[in-house]
Amino acid sequence: MESRLLIDSADAGTAAAHLRELAEWLRHEQELRGRVRWEHRDVAGDEMGGLPEALVVGLSSGGAVTVLARAAVEWVRHRTRDVTLKVVRESGESFEVSVQRATSHDPLVTELLDFLRADGRNAEPDETA
């Protein structure tokens, strides 16, 4: 199972900068090492390269799902600017985490965990939640 992490921003440069910060944040999570990769948008004919559009996270265990949910909410809470992180399942359904929603940490982590687990492909139970 994979989930895509996108930054909701009209400016592609700002979104890419936030994604780089998030990638660095997730890099410190042992359970997610080797599971996070970049997804770039298609390059137009007159462009030299594309900006990153999303982070794709492979979630094959319940522990990784829990770590991603907690880390994503915590990352948003530490932003000094208004940021909206969109988590998109393979089915196309999405869940948004914004600074406004992240005022209360635990309920939002639980909501995001429920969203990620509802994909039905995460068969391993999570003993850490």
Question: Could you please describe the fold and organization of this structure?
Answer:
Pfam families: EACC1. The chain has 129 residues and is α+β, with helices and mostly antiparallel strands. The chain is 35% helix and 22% strand. It has one domain: 2-Layer Sandwich (Alpha-Beta Plaits). The chain has a five-stranded antiparallel β-sheet, covered by helices on one side. Strand 4 and strand 5 form a beta hairpin. The C terminus is likely disordered.
Summarize, please.
InterPro entries: EACC1. This protein has one domain (2-96, 103-117): Alpha-Beta Plaits (2-Layer Sandwich), CATH 3.30.70. Helix content is 35%, strand content 22%.
Secondary structure blueprint with pairings:
Blueprint: E1 2-7, H1 12-27, E2 36-40, E3 52-58, H2 62-77, E4 84-89, E5 94-98, H3 105-117
Antiparallel strand pairs: 1-3, 1-4, 2-3, 4-5
Helix pairs in contact: 2-3
Content of β-strand: 15-25%
Contiguous helical run count: 3
Compressed to H and E, one letter per element, the order equals EHEEHEEH
Category by helix and strand content: alpha+beta
Count of DSSP strands? 5
Strand count, sense and barrel status of the largest sheet are: 5 strands, antiparallel
Uncertain residue ranges: 122-129
Give the C-level CATH assignment. Answer: Alpha Beta
Helix content: 25-40%
The gyration radius over C-alpha positions equals 14 Å
Estimate the mean pLDDT confidence: 81
CATH topology: Alpha-Beta Plaits
